[in-house]
User: Fold these one by one.
Assistant:
Number 1:
Amino acid sequence: MNYYARRTLTLLLTMLFIVVLTFSVFRIIPGNPALTILGVEATDEQIAMLEAKLGTDRPLGEQFIDWIQGIAILDFGESLRFSEPVLDLIAARLPVTFSLAVLAMAITVCVAIPLGILAARTKGKLVDMVVSIGTQIGLAVPSFWMGIILILVFGLTLKWVSVSTYVGWSESPLFALRSLLLPAIALAIPQIAIVVRYLRTTMLEQLNLDYVRTARSKGLPEKDVHYRHVLKNALLPVITIIGIHFGELLAGSLVIEQVFTLPGFGSLLITAIGNRDYPLVQGLVLIIAFTVITINFLVDLSYRWLDPQIRLK
Amino acid sequence: MELGTKQDEQVLDIRNLRIELQTSRRTAVNVLEDVSLQIGKGEIVGVVGESGCGKSILSLSVLGLLPPAMRISGGELWYKDELPLHAYDNRRLQRVRGKEISMVFQDPMSSLNHGLTVGFQVTESLRLHLGCSKSEARERAIMLFRKVGLPRPEKLLHEYPYQLSGGMRQRVMIAIAISCNPGLLIADEPTTALDVTIQAQILDLMRSIREDDGTAILLISHDLGMIADMCDRIIVMYAGKVVEHGTASEIFDHPRHPYTIGLLNSIPTPAKKGNRLYSIPGTVPALHERGAGCRFASRCEYAADRCRQEQPPLIQVGKQHTAACFLLEEVNANAVV
Amino acid sequence: MMNRKYSLSLVLGMTFVSLLLAIMLISLFYTPHAVNVMKIADRLQGPSWNHWLGTDNFGRDVLSRVMVGAQTAFMVGAVSVGIGLTGGLIIGTLAGYAGKWLDELLMRGTDALLAFPGILIALLLVTIYQPSMFQTMLAIGILSIPSFARVIRSGVLQHREAEYVKAARGIGAGHMNIIFIQILPNIASSIVTTAALSFSTAILVEAALSYLGLGVQPPDPSWGRMLNESQSFLGKAPWFTLAPGLVITLTVLGFNLLSDGVRDVRDKRG
């Protein structure tokens, strides 16, 4: 079976796994889910009503088929707390989380690539060591605490950014950017650390190869050797890394949204958990997981497509 | 084509070159010592020797492409008696590389960038050194490809190295090397990684480059046969020093240094069929094992005490023929097998 | 950090970790102040002789709470790594030892788990069951299984056909013996590297969960929860947020360096 087919199969299997997981996790709870939600003081009537609503009074098999059918048409049920379709609630929060993730990614790429190249070019010298120390710290600092510190420094002390309210894109892109900037930076820092370290490694690997000597023997200035010859080859594996860590980025954003009180997936999820709003939690977890997996899949494919050796075979 | 080493037509003049390797922060070891070599316009000069004799390092030193731990610690490198390459910093050398002097390396697969098309890698030099525009460079690249015998040049421009055969890749390397009409082409084991049949073709190509453009060639190899075939003059290196220097016929018909004789004896020929193949006993001394005397003394059947204590200088033994040995009369007395 | 005879990462890593371990152990017997005693009059003070790291919003000594918080951190870390290691051992040896299809199945499974953003699993568990230290440890433990499984599997695959294993089999050693006594010691350094890394991940995830209120619950101390408490008082008492944050950073840094250091030493040995 060729690679693409195999990879798609893995994707579908993983999605199936997630579907089953999100389904079973709430059905296999010891005891009665409805009872757990409502608490011990609930009356039998209330429990029966909730059960009917959740569908837990029906056989497990039926419930599962319902779940799958629902997913296919993007119907994740209704939120217990808000009495609105889960999908609508999630969709309303999408722009925030999405723009936060994209902004964080953009910052990561813009900062990490030049830094990684710099570290490789100045290997062993002071600059490289400083970058190395910096990335170690960047990996160790919890990103949500970094968010708090950024609020402290830029929000309160220097008063550059307002951290009290979030302004939506539709209202004002500029202000939206302002509210997203600090959280995006906090999210980006560990990602930058990862990418810089990895890029440095791949660049050093490439710099050891023969074609670099050939490029130099042609009289190319070092700048061209690095950026035109080496970077292209070194960047390829790094792209996969960025894709793989996108999941972490998304996970981090869940917490960061709480730090900055941004109305995104994260705060919705936390609220839903607090309310034991099972349908909402289910829907959110499913969508987030699917997004991460799909992005991994796309990154995987793009890697193969970008590498000329693999693409043209 | 006139050959010669007239002063005003000298392309490369290496005088007493010494290269050292930094082994630790305080200590350095000489890798090459007292190496001298001249190449005239349109000449093909060969450097032959076993692995580790320093011939590759010699070739890299001309363009300042030595690995970071090595540096030129003595001697001079002159290009056309005008450019003192040994004194140039990287920036000045960049103007020489690929334009006045270019190199062809051993393994064309790893020496070409697998992620860039061969067309790009050729036009890059043209645009850099000759200031060609994109379309000009493209046209020239096609001409170059034709010149080196590559089929379907237009199509080839867009292909990647792995799509080409070994021989084709080496032709691309040569095309890149001659693209700006260099005065000197340095070829380090250009055919070692290729099939025997392709080898001959590549060598023919190199000869035609010398014929047509008057490009001088510094040819490095451990393959005596190829060196004999191609070169006008030859230097034989051993353990970082030149042991013999002369024209091809001088070296092959009248070798004087015991090492050269040993090398020639070890070439398999039909005449030796059935007999045990000769090989020089012992191994090349490692960098730190080199003693004060002649480097070859430990393996030399003629070695005397003087040989072990002093380094023999190059002694004139023919018109253009020199050999570094104290016992030349004795050695000559024993004919080549 | 590699051009010396020893590994700077390893030295630094061990120093940090030992320091924190020492603080944690000390806190079992002694802290400068009682951890839960509230003195509202003294709330939100900055660092002073009496309170080296100041006081929190209830007047409790920050230093003491940080010290005791180390207990939670190490406990969560150790148990999660334990769960991960055990699970990883089982899955890894099964995958490496057994047939092709079992290997494929297990590896696809762990890959799927790996793709899952870690914290989601923890959040899932917490939705069903009450948030608690146990849930946290379980969730993080499950998260760590794939990394261990991979390392052990590749080690098993690598050494399965090695000479010394064949020799051991030749003298009648059973499978368990081969796994534990022959193969594992050879991949010990890889396991240690993975364990150290999992430990630091565990600390970060626990801190995040506790910050959200979904991890370790009061009265069990937690650095993450302290960060949450400190956020409301950023203006009045900025130092309150520094202590727990810095100690989390240092602990994670210590374990990361340890992991790098062990790997450096192993690489150098060839």
Note: Chain A has a mean pLDDT of 83.
Number 2:
Amino acid sequence: MSAVPPPAMVPFADVFQLVFMASVRELVRRRRLVFIGLAGLIPLFFTWIWRMFGMDFIDAESMLTNLVSSLYIGVLVYLVGIAFGVPTVHDEVEGRTLTYLLTRPVSRIAVYSGRLAAVQLLAGVLLALSLVACFMFAVLGNDGAMSLTLVKTYVNHVWVVLLATILMVGLFAIIGTLFRRPLVWSFLYAFAWEGIVAKVPGRLQTWTLDFHLRNLLLRDEDVQASILEGLKHLLVREVEVSAWVSLAVLLLALVGFSVLGGWIFARREYVIQ
Amino acid sequence: MSEQPVLACDAVTRWYGQVIGVNGVSCEISPGVTGVLGLNGAGKSTLFKLMAGQLRPSKGRILLLGHDLAQNTGLYRWIGFCPEPDALYESMTGREMLVYLLRLHGFDANEAGRRAASALERTHLTADADRKVAGYSKGMRQKIKLAQAMAHDPRVLFLDEPFNGMDPVSRHESLALIRELGEEGKTVLVSSHILHEVEQMTSTILLIQHGRILAEGHVSDIRDLIERHPHQVRIACDSPRRLAAVLVGNEDVQGVRIDSDDEHVLAETNRPRTFFASLPGLALDGDVRIRGYTTADDDLKSLFEYLVEDAS
């Protein structure tokens, strides 16, 4: 006897939209967001310090460049990436609610993409708002003076930080999808691989995302860059890679992380106890 | 032409590393309620997860209306799954959770709202529908799990221990609901480790032990086996010695002893149904106040031991 034809799955776009909206609502309601939001205030604190004590020594452009290079690219994008990225799937597994999603007629890739897009959006908004606040604070400290260089530097920094954030969220989402103890692996990656290898002289550093992100940061030779970067310049010979190559590497990584995460999620068997 | 079973398992085996979860299970499930009965850790949940496509068999295959679930995700339109873990979307209200999951079945917002309201009504949750799930009692949490499994009107329902933690009223309501679903022509598989609970919903049962199907068929066959097999009842009362004295003279009782805690009587009977019917009268005769009794788990455990011995 021939079987009744099986019904079709729910369209990808519908599932993506539903999961995206539900994930945004769920994330906004979480207390965790407040704590992560506090991390976004750290740069504001440093801007305040600059306004109080450093305005005579460092101009607004240099201060913003230092802040972005040392604090945002060096620390915050990893912390926010881990805080938002790791739970993308891991929260549903730990909370054992994943079963509800996996017993619906939906594409797993659509579920993954919807959740990932939601966490990327919120993480990006959080760091972008933090940067806007720092910029406003820096401009006010600059007696309201806003030079073209300052605006150009700021716009460049905003998009590099946004790219870094969504990239890291995508990467840590994979780690959250793959491992039972994703935080250990995430911190190892962030602060051992990226944190150390990116500072090793020679071509090895080009294998880190940190290298390519910094390579995209606008640096006027006359503007003092990160203090750490400045020291590095004095000590080691810089590897020259074009900004376009770095951009291509990062965009490729962004697409690659999203595809790989969805692929792993679609094929992995989750034993929910 | 033979009628196709709704669900067919063909020599399904599932390993978890070195541990076997389900071992060579073959069965065919037809419409109506089927009780899957087994002690804790017998393999009921693993079997349900395999049947619902949440786990892949290490060997064998499972067909739902002739289709392999792993190859046709669209088949989930026909499946409702109520998982055992007490896990829900805590930040949502009951209604929000149902609407969200219904929309993932492809229903538009209006239809999802209508179906959610109907499922909430059938599970007696309408009054609490707009409260956060995080504030639900254990019984209400079980009911909302049941509601999400049936809201999209599936053809096959897998209900894994749906009565755990329910109060007697909720249990009664849910038993009636599951009976109704079976009468509507749906194929409902309910797992439990309590025989009399399953008996109230169906006469078709499947006994599972150590990942294997030990027996399947009509509940009366199982009852006969139980009645041929000594059946131990542990009774809590205010005066174990007086109750033991009354029980000794009863023809349904094969043996009596007082438990080591001096608060319970352990009675052995071959005719549990008549024994339970006469127990209130016996307590009255002996002027004993009975606080409660337990039988189900021990009862089932001894039955399984008996069946395993019989098979060997």
Note: The domain at 7-224 of chain B is CATH 3.40.50.300 (Rossmann fold).
